[in-house]
Amino acid sequence: MIDHDGFRPNVGIILSNQDRRLFWGRRVGQNAWQFPQGGINPNETPEEAMFRELEEEVGLQEQQVTILGFTRGWLRYHLPKRYIRRHCGPTCIGQKQIWFMLRVNCGEEAFCLDHTDKPEFDAWRWVRYWQPLNEVVYFKRHVYLQALEELAPTLYPDGAPLRESHYAGGARLLRQRCP
């Protein structure tokens, strides 16, 4: 399902543990890390899609998490031109996502990355709040920043931790406190 602007509706899932660390998954067979995410099926709400994707990609069910918050609107990213498939319509130029912040209410033994025939992740780890900005593929970085900034108060009501951003291959380190 692609909207009239060429964006595929999608959900993004940020899972946090009791220490406010975030689930960071490695894509199968790649050295690429990301949060769980997935498309919204026709006649499915973003929340329904989020719970379906959570179970498919991480093996967790609704009762094993608490929704702390979600983004107010769609966050969009464009795919690089080399990833756009123009010969199968309609053309998808990127994704628009509703992001959810969840707290995990169960032990790590409940996580199951091969819950489906085609797993998304083959490994995972807990990371500091802003760390994904330095590791996610470049074309998703802006959306990750938007989601983490908007949802930070759900996990850090007294203010988010300092954010470290690396530029020019780590030559410059910028620390700032987000609103």
From TrEMBL:
Cofactor(s), names only, from the UniProt record: a divalent metal cation; Mg(2+); Mn(2+)
Keywords: Hydrolase
PROSITE patterns tied to this protein: NUDIX, NUDIX_BOX
InterPro entries in UniProt: Nudix_hydrolase, NUDIX_hydrolase-like_dom_sf, NUDIX_hydrolase_CS, NUDIX_hydrolase_dom, RppH
Sequence motif Nudix box, residues: 38-59
Segments forming domain Nudix hydrolase: 6-149
GO cellular component, one term: cytoplasm
Presence of the UniProt keyword Hydrolase in the record: yes
Class of enzymatic activity (EC top level): hydrolase
PANTHER family: M7GPPPN-MRNA HYDROLASE
Family: Belongs to the Nudix hydrolase family. RppH subfamily.
Full protein name: RNA pyrophosphohydrolase
Organism: Thiorhodococcus drewsii AZ1
